Amino acid sequence: MDSQSVNSVEESASISGFDAHKHVKGRKRHLLVDTLGLPLSIYVTPADVHDTKGARCLLAGLAPLVPRLKKIWADGAYRGRELAEWCQAEGNWELEVVERSPGTRGFSVQPKRWVVERTFGWLSRWRRLAGPLGKAGGNLSSFFATGLRAHLFSLHFSSLLGFRISSKEWFK
Q: What is the reported pLDDT for 95?
């Protein structure tokens, strides 16, 4: 589980805010993926919504739809006993916060978390999600889901045509 703050334009819809941590005025995309990076849940909020509140919106009502979900890996923004207890009560999920190694500076690949980051990378390559969407704020979740479907379809279609994707390309 992770979130990504993205810019919006001045004339954007009412769903916008300012993420003071990342200095971004716009929206925040919340994403829950499985171990392959395929989306389980998508939710879009104003950028000023804290990750723990966005996580509740992202996970609310998900238990009957994904009964095999047992553990959720998240970054440090999701730490705290209150969210962990809520996850346990809502869906009997164990929330495991993947922390950085002490003394690590700059970017470093975190175990389990790179999967959701790769999914965000896939999405940033889709033209409709690469920049601000202007007044299409109400449809952002739909654009988000469509971008993931388009990427997965292209992978499936290339395999049907006989193109081989090496394991090195999967983990870029």
A: 94
Buried b (16+ CB within 10 A) or exposed e, 155-171: eeeeeeeeeeeeeeeee
DSSP secondary structure, 17-79, as one string: EEETTTTEEEEEEEEEE-TTS-EEEEEEEETTS-HHHHHHHHHTT-TTT-TT--EEEE-GGG-
pLDDT digits (tens, 9 = 90+) for 48-91: 888 999 999 999 988 988 889 999 999 888 999 999 999 999 99
pTM of the predicted model as reported, rounded to 2 decimal places: 0.71
- Each as own residue / partner, the long-range contacts of residues 152-158 (CB below 8 Å, 24 or more positions apart, any chain) are 152/38
Are 14 and 26 in contact, with CB atoms under 8 Å apart? no
Contacts (Cβ under 8 Å, ≥6 apart) of 59: 1, 32, 41, 72, 87, 90, 91, 93
